[in-house]
Design a protein that fits this description.
The protein has 96 residues and is mostly helical. The chain is 86% helix and 0% strand. Keywords: Membrane, Transmembrane, Transmembrane helix.
Length: 96
Amino acid sequence: MTAQLMRSIGERLRMWKSEVKARPLMLVEWCGAGLGVLGAEVLAQKSAYSAYGWVIWLVSNVLWIVFALKKRAFGLLAMQLVFTFTSLQGAVNWLL
């Protein structure tokens, strides 16, 4: 990697860090989204670890519920409450 590219990456990371400090809810949103995608991928792999996709989804659901409450996004809140219930069902069925 060139020095210019490294500086550019460092600058972007500093900008993102300052944005997160200014808007901490953005971190909740992106972690919820990332964990939702990760949970889907883990489950789709159909491996010995696939059952943990449900647990990952539960964490994602909690983050989305926090986000929805803070943003007063009640449609998103309702959906995530249902998804939390289905994630609990999946975790119980796959892990117990």
